[in-house]
Write a structure and sequence with these properties.
The structure holds 2 protein chains of 2 kinds. By secondary structure, chain A is an all-beta fold. Chain A contains no helices and 11 strands. Chain A is globular. Chain B is an all-beta fold. Helix content of chain B is 0%, strand content 45%. The chains are: A mainly beta, B mainly beta. The interface between A and B is medium-sized, with 30 and 24 residues.
Chain lengths: 115, 110
């Protein structure tokens, strides 16, 4: 049982380039989240999804797009990367209903550097 | 969701109990208190949660005051591996958003 898997783990981009981060979960969770964490800071919510085909904005959504075409996958896209998007990105998922429904399971993170 | 306030940092001697406080004075009746920790640059890890009763599991204990306006996470015998950032979050199971604060950086000293 892999849990939440993020790819890639590391990436270096030049300003203006685009890329997609992939989050995959094998726990049949309904909700999925993308967070960013800047050095010495807490986690900030970028976008989230409450089910296949649905997405919503979090605290810091500007400059990012997301898609949830399949229940197990949540993609985070940067159309035109900027140095301010240099960060560690974490994906998380949780199920709905029942005991422990509000417990998040996190991936290992994707470290992105934009030059 | 209720806002939480935690100290920025704390130190604890190895083998002693680490008591991490969290204030959530605007918590509502159906909101739970959740604790996570983040070791170095790893993804946060769930520790424990509670509504109004005290809770204990293999990792920690959670003490919630009677008025529910504050709580304390207790690591009974802290080890060096407990050095991490600890996040206190208040939310309901029906909430879609899941907002983290800046947490408490706990350093366990040898």
């Amino acid at each position: 049982n892999a849990g939440v898997t993020q790819t890639p783990k590391f990436r270096v981009l030049k300003t203006g380039q685009s890329m997609t981060l992939l989050c995959a979960q094998d726990m049949n969770h309904e909700y999925m989240y993308w967070y960013r964490q800047d050095p010495g800071m807490g986690l900030r919510l970028i976008h989230y999804s409450v089910g296949e085909g649905t997405t919503a904005k979090g605290e810091v959504p500007d400059g990012y797009n997301v898609s949830r075409l399949k229940k197990q996958n949540f993609l985070l896209g940067l159309e035109s990367a900027a140095p301010s998007q240099t960060s560690v990105y974490f994906c998380a998922s949780r199920r709905t209903g029942g005991t422990g429904a509000n417990v998040l399971t996190f991936g290992a993170g994707s470290r992105l550097t934009v030059l | 969701d209720a806002k939480t306030t935690q100290p920025t940092s704390m130190d604890c001697a190895e083998g002693r109990a680490a008591n991490l406080p969290c204030n959530h004075s605007t918590i509502s009746g159906n909101e739970y208190v959740y604790w996570y920790r983040q070791i170095h640059s790893q993804g946060p890890q769930y520790i424990i949660h509670g509504l109004k009763n005290n809770e204990t599991n293999e990792m920690a204990s959670l003490i919630i005051t009677e008025d529910r306006k504050s709580s304390t996470l207790i690591l009974p015998h802290a080890t060096l591996r407990d050095t991490a950032v600890y996040y206190c979050i208040v939310t309901t199971s029906g909430t879609y958003k899941y907002i983290f604060g800046t947490g408490t950086r706990l350093k366990v000293l040898a």
